[in-house]
């Protein structure tokens, strides 16, 4: 019988598998994609400094950073609100770091992780879809699609993003009634290394530096998104410029436009009999402030440390899972509350709220301890 069966070998599942590799823990990853493929087209991932440290520990970062166009450092973050005063600028130099975070290609990261898994001889069953996880007193059973023998392990971990069903774990879902319009935009002149987070009455809009352009994440209603996606490039850029205001000018090009719905989904609880959920299977957050993916990597790393701290025969037992859940609760709850709170607070356009937000941003910019504390939370999480 396996020690740990991991459903999903995407970035979060692969991080867990690599953190366990070489430690006398028998691991098998189960993944629906084919070898050498990714489940999604390329997209931008916002990595915190803490996530970089995790990838360095796993021996992945050097290869990723050496891949042309795969990594763009964020050296400055400009935070502002539309229709009111107050702004804050966070810089890497304030933390004596080379970067506050990084914008990383999802495809490049997945390839680097796959290569590391192969070097570590972690077995992966590609092209295999899990449909459900059953927990029993002595083992977990991963049910697979088709006439395929189930996989049994002391512990089953769902890290597939969509959240394969697990007995005893339910997923709550809050629909924000909005979508994120995404794409790549070029600025003239370019602003390399500077990320922008602009809060508007319709929701946040962000620009993330990616090489010679910026990745756009623009919150709006589905109806407006449909109309904006149908516009010619020039008309789209003019609409973006009007929405963003004078904080950023010179929108010169747009490409690769698309949209996806915005939801807050969370698993309750994150552990059940002989099983656990991590990453997007545990919590799916609004993209504001780029917290979700980094929270998932911390899930994977902390679960691996909990497993390695547990006697072999006790892996997957109730005490181990309770310890993991308690270990992750402060960071997870704070990350969810922080992200959801930003959406609610900055989506309110009442004059008093707008004035209070402006005051908070102004104080954040001029009070060094507050700025350092906020920046540390962005670098390493909310715990």
Features:
35% helix; FAD/NAD(P)-binding domain; nine-stranded mixed beta sheet; 383 residues
Please, could you describe this protein's structure?
This protein has 383 residues and is an alpha/beta fold. It has a domain at 2-45 and 104-172 and 264-346: FAD/NAD(P)-binding domain. The protein is built from ten helices and 20 strands. The strands form three sheets. Strands 1, 2, 8, 9, 10, 11, 12, 18 and 19 form a nine-stranded mixed β-sheet that branches. An eight-stranded mixed β-sheet has the order 6-5-14-15-16-13-17-20, with helices on both faces. A three-stranded antiparallel β-sheet has the order 3-7-4. α1 (11-20) runs parallel beside α4 (106-119), α1 packs parallel to α7 and α9 (351-366) crosses α10. It is globular. The relative contact order is 0.18.
């Amino acid at each position: 019988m396996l020690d740990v069966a991991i459903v999903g070998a995407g970035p979060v599942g692969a991080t867990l598998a690599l953190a366990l590799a070489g430690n006398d823990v028998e691991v098998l990853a189960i993944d629906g994609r084919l070898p050498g493929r990714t489940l999604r087209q390329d997209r931008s991932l916002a990595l915190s400094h803490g996530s970089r440290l995790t990838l360095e520990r796993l021996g992945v970062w050097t290869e990723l950073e050496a891949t042309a166009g795969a990594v763009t450092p964020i050296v400055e973050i400009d935070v502002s609100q539309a229709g009111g005063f107050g702004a804050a600028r966070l810089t890497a130099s304030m933390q004596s770091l080379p970067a506050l975070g990084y914008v990383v290609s999802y495809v490049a990261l997945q390839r680097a992780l796959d290569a590391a898994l192969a070097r570590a001889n972690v077995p992966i069953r590609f092209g295999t879809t899990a449909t459900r996880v059953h927990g029993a007193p002595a083992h977990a059973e991963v049910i697979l699609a088709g006439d395929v023998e189930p996989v049994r392990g002391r512990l089953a971990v769902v890290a597939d993003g969509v959240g394969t069903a697990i007995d005893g774990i339910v997923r709550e879902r809050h629909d924000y009634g909005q979508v994120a319009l995404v794409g790549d935009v070029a600025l003239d002149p370019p602003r390399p290394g500077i990320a922008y987070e602009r809060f508007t009455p319709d929701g946040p809009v962000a620009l993330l530096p990616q090489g010679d352009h910026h990745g756009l994440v623009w919150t709006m209603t589905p109806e407006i998104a449909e109309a904006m996606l149908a516009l010619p490039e020039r008309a789209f850029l003019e609409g973006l410029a009007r929405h963003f205001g004078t904080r950023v000018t010179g929108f010169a090009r747009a490409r690769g436009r698309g949209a996806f719905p915005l939801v807050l989904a969370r698993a309750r609880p994150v552990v059940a009999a002989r099983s656990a959920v991590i990453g997007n299977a545990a919590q799916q957050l609004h993209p504001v402030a780029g917290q979700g993916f980094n929270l998932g990597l911390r899930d994977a790393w902390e679960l691996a440390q909990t497993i390695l701290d547990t006697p072999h025969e006790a892996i997957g037992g109730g005490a181990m899972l309770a310890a993991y859940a308690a270990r992750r609760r402060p960071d997870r709850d704070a990350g969810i509350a922080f992200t959801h709170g930003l959406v609610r607070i900055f989506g309110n356009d009442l004059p008093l709220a707008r004035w209070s937000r402006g005051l908070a941003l102004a104080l954040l910019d001029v009070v060094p301890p507050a700025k350092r504390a906020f920046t540390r939370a962005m670098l390493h999480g909310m715990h």
